[in-house]
Amino acid sequence: MNLxxxxxxxxxGGYGESVVVQLGMNNWMVVDSCIDxxxxxxxxxxxxxxxxxxxETEVKLIVCSHWHNDHILGIDKLLEECKSATLAFxxxxxxxxxxxxxxxxxxxDKLLSHTSSTxxxxxxLNIVNQRKIPVKTxxxxxxxxxxxxxxxxxxxxxxxxxxAVISDFGTEISELMRNYVPCSNxxxxxxxxNEKCVVLQVSVNxxxxxxxxxLETSEDNKRGWLCILDNCSCISKNSASLYKIPHHGxxxxxxxxxxxxxxxxxxxxxxxxxxINGKVCLPTKDMLNxxxxxxxxxxxxxxxxxxxxxxRDNSLQKAIRAFNPTLKEIPFRKGIIENYIDLDVExxxxxTNLHGKAFEIDNxxxxxx
Length: 369
Prior knowledge:
The chain is α/β, with parallel strands linked by helices. 30% of the residues lie in helices and 23% in strands.
């Protein structure tokens, strides 16, 4: 079918999220990757295969939104199978320095048997180098993918990161490389990867979705959501009708002006994934109350805060107390939200399929939190 479909895959407890988008007919893109903690399989790859997508030819674009393990685990396996896909991610203003940095930390990982975001990105770069397909560098207002034929007009545009953020990233990497100690147990850690997160505006035949990634707010309009609102030249104001709400609906990713200026509230559908790990629980009740007032429908991939972890065997519990008393179970709660529009139907609105733990949030549910 000729669908504009935005599918959010969530895992609930810190195993990550991914967005799979059907851009009409046989055109697909994937934003980020996450894995099943048991099988270690890439969940977006598994999902695409379940839909019968021809992985090698129909996936056109893979976007790495930012350097957090919960957003890129399995992305190397995804890229390896999607042989026609272009890989896109944000780098520093000095690309050579960035590639040198990736190589340094990746070599350190191999020596110390670590797996980190830089190691995964090094594998991805090796794949694209072998294919001789250049990485698409993500910049604010850059078109990452476009297609215009007799049935579909497709455009995927990056709304972030800004020039200021990319410049800061270059300075940060210089400092990290200067302080780099080969073969040490000290990992290279990039500060505030959420600040560098990619936000996408995806438009197909006049319908628009905003994929908010994990981008946070800033008081400075050269960064974060204010930068998008004040400086992007490609935004279609008050027209987007689907919003992948950023950073699990956290307060530090909420910018009121985004909701006021970017969306058509008569049609707006919101989708988000939670982050529930120990005492950290996102989204909060207060944020859900804000979201539900601004959308026609609000969906979440799971929300099992009231469920207690399964009881452990006594012998296992004793072993944990003896050797690692701080060990805690992180629940895996897979859910998929599919919001889609039939592009062959005039003035269509978003329809929804929910899988696994995903459900629609209403006021009654919020009142019970």
